[in-house]
Design goal:
By secondary structure, this protein is an alpha/beta fold. It contains 16 helices and 17 strands. Among the domains are: about 160 residues, Cobalamin-binding domain (Rossmann fold, 3-Layer(aba) Sandwich); about 150 residues, Aldolase class I (TIM Barrel, Alpha-Beta Barrel), CATH 3.20.20. β4, α5 and β5 form a beta-alpha-beta unit. The structure holds cobalamin and iron/sulfur cluster.
Length: about 450
């Protein structure tokens, strides 16, 4: 039995990431690979981050796998659709079973199955994938495997029901980083930023309800690895790869204060000095938490609010107070932790006044970094359900992502390009006082007015 795991992301196609150059290894398939290793199932990972789709195709053609598992998210949809179509046309791969997993499959099941995928795994993938590769011999077997979608003999979509989530995620082996070239990731980081990073996951699921956020994989659960296990993994990473920093991909790193306390204690006991970056929420932070973060090696914390307007934060069901976001950003900075925040413009109902409040919020908080996006509706989210009747343009599913879906907002689409420039330049001006930034900000504000009045 030949099992291959792969994904559809390639930096060569991603002009934006070529500028940022902070790629991370595909943790989802590495977790599955580690699980298969631990259960004696030989498997191979084709990591496409640094290769082209053609190279990926050649490797698959050569290997002729019996099972091909592919991770897919909304951005890699197009590449994965193309891959599936090629496989379906290749006579030498007629026995290859295509199994998809990741956040994209649950809410696009019909489309993926019609495209040619044989089985879709929803939610956590380790046990479902293992069960598939060990017990799927005939089509009938699929009905017994929980957590999958497939087409029945009449071509109708069949769902076998949710698989029970793994209760104790400490049973998961470390992701099989040894199956790919982590060195390559470390090198590109180092050459561009002088420092490098490796990603680590300590929790699965998030109990919050932000309307634009996809919880298609782990749902609203909260499960956490023990601090001891996490520190063990960090020690292992330091020994084998010796990265400069760690990025915790967790949704809300400080969600449990008890966990954080224990984590800080374990880090200290292990004499571990590995600076890390993480994401949190202001309502799960306070002075003590910031102290624990600092003590355990946190050099940067991202604290989201998405907007500076409480009205919009409430509309998003973000459940946080804008003042507390500002306070936690300032407090983290004062304690020597760099800060970042996320901003989203164009949320339904947002007016120019809300955008001005967002600028005020950024100026009051002065985070070291912020990212800014225009809101887009991910299928399966509450935001998607809310704007469904206001969709203006939904491009061909197979050639686009949810980011390309446009919906009716308060202002025309072109307005938001200028609004982004306004927020960026005005905030950066507040930091540096460079006159050119003020000029750019004023120009952007004028264009906001112009597009608001005259653009269609
Ligand atoms: C880290 C991360 C990133 C990183 C790094 C990505 C990377 N290479 O790892 C960066 C910052 C680059 C990033 C970027 C983006 N991200 Co992101 N990201 C995450 C995050 C926080 C963690 C991912 C992770 O490592 N999880 C841990 C692993 C173990 O979980 P997993 O990948 O889901 O894998 C499990 C299952 O999905 C399944 N599975 C996975 N693969 C496979 C394959 C098979 C065959 C099977 C059977 C099962 C299976 O089994 C795995 C183990 O149980 C998730 C949110 C989250 N909490 O998961 C968002 C998330 C994946 N990102 C998301 C989005 C929207 C983006 C961006 C579009 C954001 C943007 N505006 O630019 C970009 C797109 C990047 C791209 N081109 O692909 C969405 C995806 C939504 C969707 N429906 O596709 C998520 C879910 C966030 C959210 N809650 O909305 N992201
Ligand atoms: S945005 Fe963050 S806090 Fe909100 S639901 Fe998503 S992961 Fe949870």
């Amino acid at each position: 039995m030949q099992v291959i795991l792969t994904h559809g992301y390639s930096i060569i196609d991603d002009v934006r990431e070529q500028q940022i150059m902070k790629p991370y290894a595909p943790l989802g398939i590495l977790y599955i690979s580690g699980w298969l290793d631990a259960h004696g199932i030989n498997n191979h990972v084709i990591d496409t981050t640094f290769i082209t789709q053609d190279e990926q195709w050649n490797q698959i053609k050569e290997a002729k796998p019996e099972f091909l598992g592919v991770y897919v998210n909304l951005m890699t949809r197009k590449n994965v659709v193309q891959l599936i179509k090629k496989i379906k046309q290749e006579i030498n791969l007629k026995h290859t079973k295509i199994i998809l997993g990741g956040p994209e499959v649950r809410n696009n099941a019909q489309q993926w199955l019609q495209t040619g995928a044989d089985v879709l795994v929803v939610g956590e993938g380790e046990i479902t994938f293992e069960t598939l590769v060990t017990s799927w011999k005939t089509h009938k077997d699929l009905y017994q495997i929980a957590g999958i979608y497939f087409l029945d003999e009449s071509g109708n979509m069949h769902f076998t029901g949710e698989r029970e989530k793994i209760k104790d995620i400490d049973i998961l082996p470390f992701p099989a980083r040894q199956h790919i070239s982590i060195q390559k990731y470390l090198e590109v980081w180092k050459s561009r930023h002088g420092k490098n990073a490796i990603s680590v996951s300590t929790m699965r699921g998030c109990p919050y309800t932000c309307k634009w956020c996809s919880r298609a994989v782990y749902g609203m659960s909260y499960r956490r690895r023990s601090p001891q296990k996490v520190v063990e993994e960090l020690q292992h990473i330091q020994e084998v790869y010796n990265p400069d920093t760690i990025w915790f991909v967790d949704d809300v790193f400080t969600i449990s204060h008890k966990w954080l306390e224990e984590f800080a204690r374990c880090v200290k006991e292990a004499n571990l000095t590995l600076p890390y970056e993480c994401i949190s929420r202001a309502d799960r932070m306070n002075a003590e938490v910031i102290h624990l973060l600092k003590e355990s090696g946190c050099f940067r914390v991202w604290i989201g609010a998405e907007s500076g307007s409480q009205r919009i934060i409430d509309a998003m069901d973000r459940r946080v107070k804008v003042e507390s976001v500002q306070e936690m950003i300032r407090l983290s900075n004062a304690n020597g932790i760099e800060t970042g925040t996320f901003i989203m413009l164009g949320y339904p109902g947002e007016t120019e006044l809300d955008i001005v409040q967002t600028v005020k919020h950024l100026k009051a908080a002065l985070p070291d970094l912020f990212t800014i996006t225009t809101a887009y509706p991910i299928r399966g989210t509450e935001l998607f359900a809310e704007i469904q009747n206001d969709i203006i343009n939904e491009p061909d599913w197979a050639n686009s992502s949810d980011r390309d879906v446009t919906f009716k907002r308060n202002y025309p689409e072109s307005y938001y390009k200028h609004a982004v420039r306004y927020v960026v330049n005005e905030t950066n001006y507040a930091k540096s006082k460079a006159p050119l930034l003020k000029l750019k900000s004023m120009l952007a504000r004028m264009m906001m007015w112009y597009t608001r009045k005259f653009a269609v």
